[in-house]
Amino acid sequence: MRPYAAALAAAALLLTGCDSGAVDERPDEEQTLPQPLPELTLDAFGSDAEPLQLADVRGPAVINLWASWCGPCRKEMPILEELQQSDAGVEVIGVDFQDARTAEAQELVERTGVTYPLYEDYEGELNGLAPFPAMRGLPFLAFVDEEGRVVHQEFVIIDDLAEIEGLVQEHLGVGA
């Protein structure tokens, strides 16, 4: 009976996303959107590229928080790369979030062929920093308009290009 319970628990984790393991003592307040991106500098992921001043981002853009230990994140990275390469008119920005497995993260980026800009938030500074919510798991997407405001955000597992294109059209009004 125990192997069945373990398999069921593993399947539930896979289907619901990945728990970051972070504990947040802040109250669970619903964010009113749109809100500007926070004043925060993120270092470039695994390179000497320029850091990102998050408040300077202008959309349409999709910010994806991911980690190498997150199965759904690994699956959707190539899909987000397809979005970046498409004619949708949206920039994809990836943030490796609270991921201590830097070698595995770098291997994942190489294996998936991701070319969109990547940054790192190993300390979890975005966790609960308005307008970002307390991160209860990954993957997480924030949709940023041309004024640099987060207009929509959600914990979501993207299954295909059509799904993310639909979200971009719905929340940013752009698409292929």
Automatic annotation (TrEMBL):
Listed name of the protein: Redoxin
InterPro entries for the chain: Redoxin, Thioredoxin-like_sf, Thioredoxin_CS, Thioredoxin_domain, Thioredoxin_ResA/DsbE_sf
Thioredoxin domain span: 31-173
Keyword Transmembrane recorded: yes
Gene3D superfamilies documented for this protein: Glutaredoxin
Keyword set, alphabetical order: Cytochrome c-type biogenesis, Disulfide bond, Redox-active center, Signal, Signal-anchor, Transmembrane
Organism, as annotated: uncultured Nocardioides sp
Recorded GO MF terms: oxidoreductase activity
Source organism phylogeny: Bacteria, Bacillati, Actinomycetota, Actinomycetes, Propionibacteriales
